[in-house]
């Protein structure tokens, strides 16, 4: 039987868990906006093109201008968050999202539109780094993987929500209305979650690890106590202080042993997350389906199914990442992605449009969603030392966005290159991404350490012990 004392203890435990969960969900709104902002273009680009009378090259730029902003945002978010705090940096991202949402709905020219999108992209780049960073710094070690994976759940939910929002808005009028106004609502709707994000950020505290770095141990202890109770807080504070005192904190240290290894792991995982091809499916899915013979309606429906798979299998990662660990998920996921891509390539090579093409695509998405999607963000948010975590993560994230840009820009080119098409019948890009999946499996097995269940301070000590 439960004694009254145990009852109170578990009620307190419950309260702490709810508190950490609330902080996680608020920070994860940054992930939601990341998904929303990157995918909104898919439903709007056609109308935008007609409205402004864009050429093919101008259309490509309008679709990808935000990505350039992402690279810039990821580049300086680390510096800002190390200097001014994680929370203030998140607030800046929220402001940029709001400005971009409003301005991209009312531009007079396509240049204005692109500037507004770049501003939003800077917000995405910042949030892509800051949300997992913040969550990893407030999480108890035992559930850190799960909590950071909620950010990925928010990203894929944002993508799914915007698919529906676009679909709903497009249904409000005819082609002429959509060309004149519909696309404006698609972009403008982003201002709603962006404003909510901004105001809810007032309800979260600054990251305790950042506070210790700023010599504000008293404030850090208050936050740690709310998260883990007084005993746990005292122990954690001690560990954070010790490791921070040992840290050098100069950017150059990331390129010398012992931290060089962490930096290489962060960079390679970030690049491999992208060059295994995920955003080819995220950004071009309807086109791929149409290329395989589907009509527009079916293509859009299949795209929604992709979104649903992405969300569902991210939930699987959330359940398993702290139990199975980061490495098994990455290895299983990358293997499944490689097999699916090989199958897809074979289907493309023999010109098959049968239903199993969809099976391969969904298999690929499921495997990404349960592994590389969440786990790469988890790992790059936990493997660097506190003093330079923001700046180190910025290097990895900046390269992640650059790789994203490179893959999404080159896919149409390599998919239509006459020689490649004659030789591989559209299979080339898929087989290329499959090769990178093999590299991912080998790299994770040989080089990446398992970090499940370890506190951020234990991970830090692991590098210096090596
Ligand atoms: C990746 C994004 C991708 C998203 C889709 C994220 O982890 O970083 O590039 O669009 O997952 O699931």
Textual characterization of the structure:
With 466 residues, the protein is mostly helical. It has helices spanning 4-52, 56-84, 86-103, 110-138, 144-170, 175-188, 191-200, 208-213, 217-228, 230-246, 260-275, 278-291, 296-320, 326-349, 356-369, 372-382, 389-416, 418-424, 428-447, 456-465. The longest helix has 49 residues, at 4-52. It is globular and about 60 Å long. The N and C termini lie far apart (48 Å). The model has no long low-confidence stretch (mean pLDDT 91). Beta-D-glucopyranose (BGC) is lined by residues 152, 155-156, 273, 278-279, 282, 310, 373, 377, 404. Residues 152, 155-156, 273, 278-279, 282, 310, 373, 377, 404 line the site of beta-D-glucopyranose.
| Stretches with pLDDT under 50, minimum 5 residues | none
Structural class: mainly alpha
Q: How far apart lie the N and C ends? A: 48 Å
**Percentage of residues assigned to helices:** over 70%
Q: Which series of helices and strands comes N to C? A: HHHHHHHHHHHHHHHHHHHH
- Mean pLDDT reading: 91
User: Quick one: biggest sheet?
Assistant: none
Alpha-carbon Rg, integer? 22 Å
What percent of residues are in strands? under 5%
Hetero compounds:
beta-D-glucopyranose
Number of helical elements: 20
Task: Give the strand tally.
Answer: 0
Shape assignment: globular
State the oligomer.
single chain
């Amino acid at each position: 039987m439960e004694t009254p004392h145990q009852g109170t203890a578990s009620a307190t435990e419950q309260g702490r868990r709810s508190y950490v969960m609330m902080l996680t969900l608020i920070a994860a709104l940054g992930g939601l906006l990341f998904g929303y902002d990157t995918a909104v273009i898919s439903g709007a680009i056609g109308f935008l093109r007609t409205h402004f009378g864009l050429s093919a090259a101008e259309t490509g730029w309008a679709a990808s201008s935000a990505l350039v902003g992402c690279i810039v945002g990821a580049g300086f978010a680390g510096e800002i968050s190390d200097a001014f705090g994680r929370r203030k940096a998140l607030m800046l991202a929220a402001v940029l999202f709001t400005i971009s949402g409003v301005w991209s709905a009312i531009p007079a020219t396509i240049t204005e539109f692109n500037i507004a999108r770049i501003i939003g992209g800077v917000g995405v780049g910042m949030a892509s780094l800051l949300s997992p960073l913040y969550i990893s710094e407030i999480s108890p070690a035992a559930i850190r993987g799960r909590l950071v994976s909620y950010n990925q759940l928010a990203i894929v939910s944002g993508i799914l929500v915007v698919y529906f929002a676009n679909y709903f808005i497009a249904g409000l009028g005819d082609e002429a209305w959509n060309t004149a106004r519909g696309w404006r609502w698609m972009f403008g709707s982003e201002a709603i979650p962006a404003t909510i994000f901004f105001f809810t950020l007032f309800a979260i505290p600054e990251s305790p690890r950042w506070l210790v770095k700023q010599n504000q141990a008293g404030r850090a202890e208050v936050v740690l106590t709310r998260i883990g109770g007084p005993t746990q807080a005292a122990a954690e504070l001690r560990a954070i202080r010790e490791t921070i005192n040992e840290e050098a904190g100069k950017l150059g240290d990331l390129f010398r042993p012992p931290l060089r290894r962490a930096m290489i792991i962060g960079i390679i995982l970030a690049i491999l997350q992208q060059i295994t091809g995920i955003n080819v499916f995220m950004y071009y899915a309807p086109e791929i389906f149409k290329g395989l013979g589907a009509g527009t309606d079916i293509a859009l429906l299949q795209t929604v199914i992709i979104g649903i798979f992405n969300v569902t299998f991210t939930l699987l990662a959330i359940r398993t990442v702290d139990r199975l660990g980061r490495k098994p998920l990455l290895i299983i996921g990358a293997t499944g992605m490689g097999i699916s891509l090989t199958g897809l390539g074979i289907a493309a090579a023999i010109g098959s449009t049968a239903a199993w093409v969809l099976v391969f695509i969904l298999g690929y998405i499921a495997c990404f969603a349960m592994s590389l999607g969440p786990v790469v963000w988890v790992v790059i948010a936990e493997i660097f030392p506190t003093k330079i975590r923001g700046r180190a993560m910025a290097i990895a994230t900046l390269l992640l966005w650059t790789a994203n840009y490179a893959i999404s820009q080159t896919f149409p080119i390599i998919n239509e290159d006459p020689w490649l098409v004659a030789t591989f019948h559209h299979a080339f890009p898929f087989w290329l991404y499959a090769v990178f999946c093999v590299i991912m499996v080998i790299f994770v097995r040989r080089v990446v350490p398992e970090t499940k269940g370890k506190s951020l301070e234990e991970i830090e000590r692991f590098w210096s012990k090596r």
